Amino acid sequence: MLWEPSFGAALYFLGGHDILTCKVFIDLLSPGVESFHFLCLLVPPVWHDGTSCKKEASVMANTNAPFGFRQYSGTGSAPTYEQVPVVIGYNTTNIFFGDPVEPVNDGTVAQGDGTTAAAGIAGIFVGCKYLSVSQKRVVWSNYYPGGTDPASGTIEGYIVNDPNAKFIVQADSSISGGIVQADVNATAGYTIGSGNTASGISAATLSGVGPTTATLPFRIISLVTQPPGSNGTEIATSNYVIVAFNNVTTKNQTGI
Fold it and tell me: 242: part of which helix (H) or strand (E)?
């Protein structure tokens, strides 16, 4: 269809904007024509055939692109929040930024495997430093590469284990329809996924919604719905949610 050659046609593009925006736009079209300043509020745009046309927001499906557990809030402040140092075991598996980590009975932590013992998870991994055998220097990294390059006894990891911390995470794609409002306050587990060694970012997702299993590591606090149209804000498969710790060692009375 063709636009009606009038201000009404141009005003289609101004839907939802304030008076000042409309005024500036009209002034650009016709400088000095004061009588048209508020037409954007009074004249609905029309197609050439005279029928009304309304701008409709497009709805896009969520893209499945997990990033682990990304801190949303806590009692500290960005960028470090409540990071605390921990020891990572020598020659263990990779640990990626945003991975849940588990306590090990030798005093170290390791990448979580998606199951949670009675003692809970140790926290969320946010980086490490170690002496690199190949580079002959201390390396600071957002992920732990595992293997034998980090020299034994030099590996210090950093985790967030504050019981008040909250995180944004993507729902696992296996949850058809995603996590909905009725799931808020339910407990949930996680799927560890396969992190990205190029970026160091986790691929962990939220899964296994309880709803009342006390040993599950996370509790759903709310859904992410803003800004509209952004990935993860559609309440559908692979949407984003905000979670808090439910079963973490810092709020659990069970040892290991």
Answer: strand 240-245
